[in-house]
């Protein structure tokens, strides 16, 4: 049987080398070898029969082969399924295979072993909780999970999760309680220190990141350019509206002063004249609406400033405030980077909303002028070509 165990070990080493994904950096051959050693150590302590020692040997080698494909979820069941095939090939009877599979399945967390073999494999599998390399091993386990999931895990978050696991875990065998538990308790104290250290580093990193963010000139440039573009677009809209107002005012003046007097002589131009006046008047109204200023009532209070709900960058929000309250609010904004940036964002946002209304009204004005002017000219042509003044 010893020769069979050697062949089995050789075959398992080959399988680990060829089948296991490189991302599995914790549940690998090194971890498996450690568990095989520990189950033999515990089995010898309890002076188990040779067959049970061999069962532990097989279970130690096979307990994590479900990780070969890099899938952590349900790896115990998958490992038991693979163990069934492997152990049948080497000629083990089904009763022994069932006991070995039960030992593999018993390692599923939370562990609930039902006999000494299952208790031994469970305690051996979590031996690292008591080892001197515990912290390095838990970081390696973190790295494996990150590689498999494809996403970073916060170190404080990981260590707190590990602490919760240690608090809920307990060893099952007398051997582990005697020899593993002291090391585990020592590691729990080390873990608390590491959590504090990691949280301090995370806080410093977050503070530095926030400071860098607030001092980033690129952000200031973005706000400056965006505000400038919005103001230039607003000026362009006002110029376009002024052009439309001027043109239509001139057309209406000409029509009223010249054409209206001639309608008695040329009554066939009455409808075209009405169309032209309506077109120009409608286009001018929408152009005036686009340029008409809208100012809020400036009723924001110092309570709004304290709640950071007021935008002091827009005069319509502060012109009713006293100089003292306005100065206080501006100082509050300058001292709080988030409040300042939020105010600038709100300012740009509402500038955009105003621009949207301006350009919608302008578009209506230009559309009315374009189509109405074309229709009016066509009506003048029709009235001239097909209707004599006396026939109208």
From TrEMBL:
Residues 29-128 form the HD domain. Residues 222-382 form the Pycsar effector protein domain. It is found in: Cell membrane. Its main location: membrane. Pfam families: HD (PF01966), PycTM (PF18967). The keyword Membrane applies. It comes from the Bacteria. The keyword Cell membrane applies. Keywords: Antiviral defense, Cell membrane, Membrane, Nucleotide-binding, Transmembrane, Transmembrane helix. InterPro entries: HD/PDEase_dom (IPR003607), HD_domain (IPR006674), PycTM_dom (IPR043760). The chain crosses the membrane at residues 243-263, 269-290, 368-387. This is HD family phosphohydrolase. It comes from Algoriphagus pacificus. The lineage of its organism: Bacteria, Pseudomonadati, Bacteroidota, Cytophagia, Cytophagales.
């Amino acid at each position: 049987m010893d020769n069979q165990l050697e062949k089995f070990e050789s075959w398992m080493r080959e399988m680990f080398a060829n089948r296991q994904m490189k991302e599995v950096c914790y549940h690998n051959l090194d971890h498996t070898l450690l568990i095989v050693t520990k189950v033999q150590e515990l089995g010898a302590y309890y002076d188990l029969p040779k067959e049970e020692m061999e069962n532990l040997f097989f279970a130690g080698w096979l307990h994590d082969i479900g990780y070969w494909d890099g899938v952590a979820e349900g790896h115990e069941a998958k490992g038991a399924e693979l163990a069934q095939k492997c152990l049948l090939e080497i000629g083990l009877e089904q009763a022994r295979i069932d006991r070995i599979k039960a030992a593999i399945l018993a390692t599923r967390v939370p562990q609930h072993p039902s006999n000494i073999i299952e208790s031994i494999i469970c305690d051996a599998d979590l031996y690292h909780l008591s080892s001197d390399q515990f912290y390095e091993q838990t970081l390696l386990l973190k790295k494996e999970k990150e590689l498999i999931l494809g996403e970073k895990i916060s170190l404080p978050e990981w260590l707190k999760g590990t602490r919760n696991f240690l608090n809920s875990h307990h060893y099952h065998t007398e051997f582990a309680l005697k020899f593993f538990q002291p090391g585990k308790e020592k590691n729990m104290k080390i873990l608390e220190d590491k959590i504090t250290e990691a949280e301090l580093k995370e806080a410093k990193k977050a503070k530095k990141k926030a400071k860098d963010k607030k001092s980033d000139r690129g952000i200031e440039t973005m706000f400056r350019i965006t505000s400038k573009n919005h103001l230039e677009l607003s000026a362009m809209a006002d110029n376009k509206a002024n052009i439309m107002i001027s043109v239509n005012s001139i057309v209406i003046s000409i029509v009223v002063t010249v054409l209206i007097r001639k309608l008695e002589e040329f009554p066939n131009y009455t409808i075209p004249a009405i169309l032209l006046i309506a077109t120009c008047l409608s286009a001018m109204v929408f152009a005036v609406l686009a340029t008409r200023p809208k100012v809020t009532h400036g009723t924001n209070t110092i309570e709004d400033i304290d709640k950071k709900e007021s935008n002091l960058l827009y005069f319509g929000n502060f012109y009713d405030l006293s100089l003292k309250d306005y100065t206080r609010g501006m100082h509050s904004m300058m001292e709080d980077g988030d409040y300042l940036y939020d105010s600038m964002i709100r300012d740009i946002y509402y500038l955009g909303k105003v621009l949207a209304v301006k350009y919608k009204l302008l578009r209506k004005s230009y559309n009315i002028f374009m189509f109405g002017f074309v229709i009016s000219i066509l009506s003048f042509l029709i009235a001239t070509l097909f209707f004599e003044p006396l026939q109208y």
